[in-house]
């Protein structure tokens, strides 16, 4: 098979490319990435000599270019990760998120329809559901109620994907995951921010009172779930993917500091983010029962692996923090 993976130089995308090639070495993966600030060629440096992996720099929001790419490459499957994904950035510049996450998705859907793609997986987020109270879980039937420009753009993309299934019969599948963590995550996100700042003995900013709760999913478990959805999922369906690991931001910061032997005094509370959702939590029963998926890592094992990776790969994140990684870009 020939897969197009968009956003394959980013955190989850690069992990998925590596996971797929390890599990399906006979397949060809075309890695499409615009190489914005979060796209990093170092994320797939270990794949440089694998002939089954090929990188193409390009923009999913460039409609004519995307159509020519599909005509030339003749893909079987599309897995669409590429997105602007940082909430704070979406508050500062909502229009950029609409262009990439909504228009870019529509162009990919249309190209997939025009060129008879066998399966298209839209990678989404639990943030499209909005905020939970202290009880309950997000299910696939929870109404969409996004609260940030980022989550609104992702919800819009999901609805476009659904429309292409309902109207045109494009075999679309949608996945919505909880917060991912693991190797190669850009340092602006919560867990790598805490790790890298703690390793440098710098203050660790925590929004508000630190009691915001997220469900955490180790990135390789997410990749295995996407694999199952792509191969065995039912087109037109939504599959929630969660780790059943709910923790407050403050608890995570304290746990990481304890593992690294650093004091809690590094934690500094800062004014809360605008529209900051209080709690997310995923009900993953559908993918577990229908497709037989199970997360391998609990939060203890996944966090230990993540900490070990960041401690071992200081050059990777130091290059990002210094901006040197941009010198690798074509």
Automatic annotation (TrEMBL):
Reactions catalysed according to its record: dTDP-alpha-D-glucose = dTDP-4-dehydro-6-deoxy-alpha-D-glucose + H2O
Keywords: Lyase, NAD
EC nos: 4.2.1.46
Cofactor: NAD(+)
Span of domain NAD(P)-binding: 4-306
Entry annotated with the keyword NAD: yes
UniProt GO MF annotations: dTDP-glucose 4,6-dehydratase activity
Position of the signal peptide: none
KW Transport (keyword) present: no
Family per record: Belongs to the NAD(P)-dependent epimerase/dehydratase family. dTDP-glucose dehydratase subfamily.
Protein name: dTDP-glucose 4,6-dehydratase
Gene assigned in the entry: rfbB
């Amino acid at each position: 098979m020939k897969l197009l993976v968009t956003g394959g130089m980013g955190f989850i995308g690069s992990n998925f490319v590596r996971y797929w090639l390890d599990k399906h070495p006979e397949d060809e993966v075309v890695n499409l990435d615009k190489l914005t600030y979060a796209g990093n060629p170092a994320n797939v440096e270990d794949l440089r000599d694998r002939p089954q992996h090929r990188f193409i720099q390009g923009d999913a929001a460039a409609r004519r270019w995307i159509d020519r790419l599909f005509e030339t490459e003749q893909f079987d499957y599309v897995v669409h990760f590429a997105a602007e994904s940082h909430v704070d950035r979406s508050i500062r510049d909502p229009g950029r998120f609409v262009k990439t996450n909504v228009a870019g998705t529509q162009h990919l859907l249309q190209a997939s329809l025009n060129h008879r793609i066998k399966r298209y997986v839209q990678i989404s987020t639990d943030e499209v559901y909005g905020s939970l109270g202290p009880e309950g879980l997000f299910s696939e039937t929870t109404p969409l109620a996004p609260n940030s420009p980022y989550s609104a753009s992702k919800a819009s993309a999901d609805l476009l994907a659904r429309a292409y299934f309902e109207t045109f019969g494009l075999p679309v599948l949608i996945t919505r995951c909880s917060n991912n963590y693991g190797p190669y995550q850009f340092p602006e996100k919560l867990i790598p921010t805490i790790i890298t700042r703690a390793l440098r003995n710098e203050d660790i900013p925590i929004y508000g009172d630190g009691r915001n709760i997220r469900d955490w999913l180790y990135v390789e478990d997410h990749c295995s779930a996407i694999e199952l959805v792509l191969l065995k999922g039912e087109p037109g369906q939504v599959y929630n993917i969660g780790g059943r690991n709910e923790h407050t931001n403050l608890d995570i910061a304290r746990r990481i500091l304890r593992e690294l032997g650093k004091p809690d005094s590094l934690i500094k509370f800062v004014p809360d983010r605008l529209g900051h959702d209080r709690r997310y939590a995923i009900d993953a029963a559908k993918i577990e029962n229908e497709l037989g998926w199970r997360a391998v890592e609990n939060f203890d094992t996944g966090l230990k692996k993540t900490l070990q990776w960041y401690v071992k790969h200081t050059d990777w994140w130091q290059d990002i923090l210094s901006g040197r990684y941009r010198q690798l870009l074509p």
